[in-house]
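Let us work through a complete example step by step.
Step 1: write down the sequence.
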Amino acid sequence: MKKFDLHNDPKIETGFKIPEHYFENLEDRIMNQLPEQDVKVISLWQRKSVWISGMAAVLVVSFGTWFYFNQQSTELSVSSQEYLAYSNDITTEEIAYHLTDEDITTIEKELGLYDTESETYVNEYLN
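Step 2: predict the structure and record it as C-alpha cells.
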C-alpha cells in the first residue's frame, strides 16, 4: 500500500465550485421561498391558569399527605402511650369494669362475635 504524505503530495481538486457571491444573499433567497405563516398568539392568562392549577394540585396533594400521616401518627402514639401506662398495672377485670355498654356493643360489632352463623352454631351445640 502506498503511503500518503499530506504535506508534500499535490492536493486533489474535488470538482465542486461555489458560485461567486453565493453566501452573501443566501438568507434572503431562502426567506423569500418560505411561505408566510400566521404567528400564534398565546395570552398570558392561559399560561397563568396552567400555573395556578398546577400549584393548586400540589397544595392539595401535600396537605392530603400531611393530614394522612399526621392522623396515623397521632392514633399510634395515643394507643402506644395507653398501652405503656396500663400494661403492667391493670387486669382484664378492671378493663371490663371501666367499659360502658356502648363500648361493649362497639367491640362486639368490630369483632363480629354475634353473627347469625355463630348464633346458630352455639344454639345447635347447646341443644
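Step 3: interpret the result. The helical segments are 26-33, 44-86, 92-98, 101-111, 116-126.
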